[in-house]
Amino acid sequence: HIAELIDVTPAEVLGTASFYEMFKREPVGDYVVNVCTNISCMLLGGEELLHHLEQRLGIKAGDTTPDGKFTVEFVECLADCGNAPAVLLNDDLLPKVTPAEADEIIAKGKGL
Fold first, then answer.
1. What are 111's strand-pairing partners?
2. Which of 1, 33, 70, 81 could, after both became Cys, cross-link 40 (CB 3.0–4.6 A)?
3. For 90-111, how does the pLDDT look when each residue is reduced to its tens digit (9 = 90+)?
4. Res 112 pLDDT > 50
5. How far apart are CA 89 and CA 105, in angstroms?
């Protein structure tokens, strides 16, 4: 439908939608938590933070919680290497996120 609206091929729409992280092809949660796992963030705990979120929410990266509240994703770079590990929570860039801070994000999102 989008291809028809903008007069391009479906392949061009898919190519663009699959290249850019911000375009979602499946429904996502109310809170999309993007954890940077590129080199700076990886060295300062990004992968551990991602695994912590997966464990706490009971989902794997790329999935959404059954209640539709959270989607957790890993991303290659959030361009905030000096504040690693960085997290993008919807449109808010969060610096130096710790597992305890991730737990606070979850608690706020669940209304606890």
1. none
2. 81
3. 999 999 999 999 999 899 887 6
4. no
5. 9
How many other C-beta atoms are found inside a 10 Å radius of the C-beta of residue 75? 18
Neighbour tally for 59: CB within 10 Å: 17
* Of the candidate ranges 1-10, 19-28, 48-57, 74-83, the one whose mean pLDDT is the lowest: 19-28
Length of the chain: 112
Residues 54, 64 contacting (CB under 8 angstroms): no
DSSP state of 16: H
Under DSSP, is residue 45 helix (H, G, I), strand (E, B) or coil? coil
Q: Give SS3 for 95.
A: coil
Compute CA distances 23 → 8, 16, 26, whole Å.
17, 8, 9
- Helix, strand or coil for residue 44? coil
pLDDT, one tens digit per residue, over 8-18 is 999 999 999 88
**CA dist., res. 61 & res. 63, Å (int):** 6
